[in-house]
Specification:
The protein is an alpha/beta fold. The chain is built from seven helices and 16 strands. The chain is 27% helix and 34% strand. A five-stranded parallel beta sheet has the order 2-1-3-4-5. It has a five-stranded antiparallel beta sheet with strand order 11-10-9-13-12, with helices on one face. It has a three-stranded antiparallel beta sheet with strand order 6-7-8, with no helix packed on it.
């Protein structure tokens, strides 16, 4: 289910920046865009909103005053060009405080905070346009690490966890292999066993029962054998 976002800002360009960031994320969608607090109040009465991006300096009612008087509110992120409201903002228990101009990297960090706040256990978040992805983000605790796909050797399943093996490092995250498989481009990765998935470009040798990634041997499971050998044109 997508996270429903409400954008509130009297500057059209600022609205468009946040909206463009949201469009790059698979799990977010814009419910409405408002130019002032009263418009936002009407939207909140009529629609379910999970996350509100709220400007502070707006004509009429400021974002701070609006939030102080809002009884039932979603998670709130303040967006502003001014640093001096930060202490007052966090006294209102907001999720985050984004300074304009808002970069996608900073926006992405904010989204990770929301997932943690909402109790979303998904450990990998991938921008929407990456249908032929070049990287994934892996969450370990509060930190989201960017992993280029061309550095991944193989992925190993360990019950409710997976371990991603790269050229230089290993990453242990809480996720099933099936969910991880959905995050990766199928042309570049291949499931060889219930416990292993490999990067096709890293294959250096092949037998009917083993795939070799340099000196690393990966087993080919009985239930995967026909599909693997066919995919790799082994005869």
């Amino acid at each position: 289910m997508k996270v429903k976002c409400l954008l509130v800002d009297d500057e059209p360009l600022a609205l468009r920046v946040v909206e463009s960031h949201i469009e790059r994320m698979n799990d977010l969608e814009v419910v409405a865009k408002c130019r002032n607090a009263m418009e936002a109040f009407e939207v909140l009465k009529q629609h379910k909103v999970d996350l509100m991006f709220l400007d502070i300096q707006m004509p009429g009612i400021t974002g701070l005053d609006f939030l102080k008087n809002l009884r039932h509110r979603p998670a709130v992120v303040f967006t502003t060009a001014f640093r001096n409201y930060a202490l007052e903002a966090f006294d209102l228990d907001v999720l985050d405080y984004l300074l304009k101009p808002i970069s996608f990297e900073r926006f992405f960090q904010c989204v990770q905070k929301y997932y943690q706040y909402a109790g979303n256990d998904s450990a990998v978040y991938k921008p929407k346009e990456e249908k032929s992805a070049e990287h994934i983000y892996v969450k370990q605790g509060k930190k989201a690490t960017k992993i280029p796909l061309n550095e991944i050797l193989f992925i190993e399943s360990l019950k409710d966890y997976i371990r991603i093996h790269t050229d230089e490092d290993r990453y242990m995250i809480k996720m099933t292999m099936c969910n991880m498989e959905k995050q990766l481009p199928e042309n570049d990765f291949l499931r060889t066993h219930k416990s292993f998935m490999i990067s096709v470009s890293k294959i250096t040798a092949l037998t009917p029962t083993r795939v070799f990634l340099g000196e690393t041997e990966i087993p080919i499971g009985r239930n995967y054998k026909q599909g693997v050998l066919s995919r790799l044109n082994y005869k």
